[in-house]
Design brief:
The chain is an alpha/beta fold. It has 22 helices and 18 strands. The strands form six sheets. It has a five-stranded parallel β-sheet, with helices on both faces. Helix 19 packs parallel to helix 21 and helix 20 packs across helix 21. The longest helix is centred in the middle third of the chain and has 19 residues. It is elongated and about 85 Å long.
Length: 530
C-alpha cells in the first residue's frame, strides 16, 4: 500500500494542495521515478534524496521507487517537495515510525547532507494549507517568520532531516522547535544591535522625508491629493527640479498597510524570490522604480513560468517610472490593462497566472527633447515638443489623473524658503481622507479609495451642483476631454472634498481638480506646422 503525505504548490500567488504518494516495486532495477508533471527541479530531487538518505544513515531501497505528485494533471515546479518525498519514502520502507503522518504538510528543499533549505512561496502555501484544513506545517527554519504570518496555524521550523524525523517520532516536541527558533531570533537581534540594518532597495524607509523638500508647495499639495485618493500622478519639469526626490517620498505619506494588504504584498515578493531569508510580513509599502530600458516581461511579468513583474511587485505601493518618454511605446502601452483592471494575467506555455497590480502610478518626464521648456534655454520648436510628448500615447496620458508642471528652483534662494511640510503631517491629512473613503466603501471589498470608484459609485458620490457642472463642461469643451478624463476629474474633486472633510463637492474642489491638468493647458497653446 502506498504512503501518502501532503505538501503544497503555487500557481501565481495562490496555492494548491499536492499529495505525494510513495510506493516500491519489487524485482525491478533500483531507481527513483518521479511522476505527476514535474519540472526539472523536481526531477532532480531523486539525486538529492539518494544523497540525503546516505548522509543521514538511512538505507536506499533496492527496488524501484515511484513518487507520484497528485493531481497528475497540474504542472508543478520547485524544489520544496523534497522533504515530503523523502519522508514518504522512509515511511514506506519502514525506516521511520511517524505517528499521524496525515496531519502534517511538508515544505522544504533537501541539501545533500540532509539539511533543509528555504524555498519561495511559503506564505501562499501556508494560506492554502489553512483553507484545506491542515493545522500543522513543517517548514524550513529560515522560512519560520514568513510562515508564522498566517494566524491559526501550527508552524514547525526544522533545520535538517534527522530533526524532522525525531519530531515525527515524538522524540522532539513542538516546544523544543519553538525554543530553538526563539533562541536563534534573539541571537540575530544581538548581532544586529549597533549595526546598520540592510534595507531592501525596493522599499522606502524613514531616511526619506518631505521635510527635505524646499519650495514646490503647489506640487506637494497635488501629491497629497493623489496619495489621499490613490490617483496616478505625472510630473513634468526641467532636469534637477526635484521630480525624483519628491516621488521617492510619496510612500512616506501613504497610510500604513492593513494586515490583508501586507499578506498580499508578502505573497508576491515570496513567489518572486525577493523576500529576505528569515523575513516575515512586509510592512512598508513597496516602491518600485525600474529603469527606462526595462523589458516588457520585466515590467508586466512573464518568463517561462509567468513570474510577477514590476507592476505586481508594486502592488499596494508605488510604481515610479522616471524619464517616462524614454520608455518604449509598446512597454508603456502594456500598462493600460493593469492600470484599468488592477490585475494582470500572464499566459505562457507552462501555465497561466494572474497577479494583483493595484498600485499608485507615479511618472516623471521632461517637457521637451532638450528638457528646458518653457525657459529661455529651450531651443525646441512646438512641433519637436509635440512629437516628443507623442511618445506617450493618449490612452496612457488619459489614465494619469494628475499632470503637474514642476517649476525650477533657484538654489541660492533655497535657504530663504521655509519648509512647511513633514511626511508625518502630510500622512495625517492623507489618513484622515482615507478613513472617510473606507467608511464610504465599507460595503464594497473591491474599493478602498476614490481612484477605484466605478461608474455607478461616481454617480452616487460625485454629484455636482449647476455651477460646478458648468465649470466642468466649459473645460471639457475647451480641451476635448473624454468620458474617462471627466470621470477622473470627478474622482479628484471627490478626494479634494474629503481632504476638506466636506460631504459635498464644492466649486473650489472642481477648480482644484481642473488645475491638476497642466499638460492639457501647455499642449493646447502650441502650433505644429510641418
Amino acid at each position: 500500500m502506498a504512503t501518502v503525505v501532503r505538501s503544497m504548490a503555487t500557481s501565481g500567488v495562490e496555492g494548491f494542495m499536492v499529495e505525494i504518494e510513495a510506493s516500491t516495486i519489487r524485482g525491478q532495477q533500483q531507481m527513483i521515478s518521479i511522476i505527476g508533471l514535474p519540472d526539472q527541479a523536481i526531477k532532480e530531487a531523486g539525486e538529492r534524496i539518494q544523497a540525503a538518505i546516505e548522509s543521514c544513515g538511512y538505507d536506499l531501497p533496492k527496488d524501484k521507487v515511484i513518487l507520484s505528485l497528485a493531481p497528475g494533471n497540474r504542472k508543478k515546479r520547485g524544489s520544496h517537495f523534497d522533504l515530503g518525498m523523502i519522508i514518504a519514502l522512509l515511511f514506506q520502507t519502514n525506516q521511520i515510525s511517524a505517528r499521524n503522518l496525515g496531519d502534517y504538510a511538508f515544505i522544504g528543499e533537501l541539501a545533500l547532507d540532509g539539511r533543509i533549505r528555504p524555498c519561495n512561496g511559503v506564505l501562499s502555501m501556508i494560506t492554502e494549507a489553512k483553507k484545506c484544513g491542515i493545522k500543522t506545517v513543517i517548514v524550513p527554519f529560515e522560512n519560520r517568520e514568513e510562515a508564522a504570518s498566517v494566524s491559526g496555524m501550527r508552524i514547525c521550523p526544522v533545520k535538517s532531516l534527522p530533526e524532522t524525523v525525531r519530531f515525527l517520532e515524538g522524540k522532539l516536541c513542538f516546544k523544543d522547535l519553538q525554543t530553538d527558533a526563539e533562541a536563534d531570533r534573539d541571537k540575530a537581534k544581538q548581532a544586529d544591535s549597533g549595526l546598520e540594518v540592510n534595507r531592501d532597495p525596493s522599499n522606502i524607509g524613514s531616511s526619506f522625508d518631505f521635510m527635505d523638500v524646499r519650495g514646490q508647495e503647489d506640487l506637494i499639495e497635488a501629491i497629497v491629493l493623489g496619495a489621499a485618493g490613490g490617483h496616478n500622478v505625472l510630473m513634468i519639469g526641467e532636469p534637477g527640479c526635484g521630480k525624483t526626490m519628491i516621488a521617492q517620498r510619496i510612500p512616506t505619506i501613504l497610510p500604513g498597510m492593513t494586515e490583508q494588504e501586507a499578506l498580499e504584498v508578502t505573497k508576491i515578493h515570496s513567489i518572486a524570490g525577493l523576500l529576505a531569508a528569515g523575513g516575515g510580513l512586509i510592512k512598508e509599502r513597496p516602491f518600485r522604480a525600474p529603469h527606462h530600458n526595462v523589458s516588457l516581461n520585466a515590467l508586466i511579468g512573464g518568463g517561462s513560468y509567468a513570474q510577477p513583474g514590476e507592476v505586481s511587485l508594486a502592488h499596494n505601493g508605488v510604481l515610479f517610472l522616471d524619464e517616462l518618454a524614454e520608455f518604449s511605446k509598446s512597454t508603456l502601452d502594456a500598462l493600460r490593462q493593469p492600470l484599468e483592471d488592477k490585475r494582470v494575467t500572464i499566459s505562457r506555455v507552462n501555465g497561466t497566472n494572474s497577479y494583483p497590480a493595484n498600485f499608485m502610478f507615479v511618472a516623471a518626464m521632461n517637457p521637451c527633447p532638450c528638457g528646458y521648456f518653457p525657459s529661455k534655454k529651450c531651443r525646441c520648436t512646438d512641433y519637436e515638443i509635440l512629437h516628443y510628448r507623442s511618445k506617450i500615447s493618449g490612452p496612457i496620458l488619459e489614465r494619469m489623473d494628475i499632470q503637474k508642471s514642476v517649476e525650477q528652483i533657484n538654489f541660492f534662494e533655497l535657504e530663504e524658503k521655509k519648509n512647511h511640510y513633514t511626511s508625518a503631517e502630510l500622512r495625517k491629512r492623507v489618513e484622515e481622507a482615507r478613513n472617510i473613503q473606507q467608511e464610504r466603501f465599507k460595503h464594497d471589498e473591491e474599493v478602498n479609495c476614490n481612484a477605484q470608484m466605478n461608474t455607478s459609485q461616481i454617480q452616487q458620490y460625485c454629484k455636482l451642483d449647476r455651477e460646478c457642472t458648468e465649470i466642468l463642461r466649459s473645460a471639457s469643451e475647451k480641451y476635448g476631454y473624454s468620458a474617462r478624463v471627466i470621470h477622473k476629474l470627478l474622482r479628484l474633486a471627490r478626494t479634494a472634498a474629503d481632504l476638506d472633510a466636506s460631504d459635498v463637492i464644492q466649486r473650489e474642489h472642481v477648480v482644484l481638480a481642473l488645475g491638476c491638468r497642466d499638460l492639457d493647458v501647455s499642449t493646447s497653446q502650441m502650433y505644429a506646422i510641418r
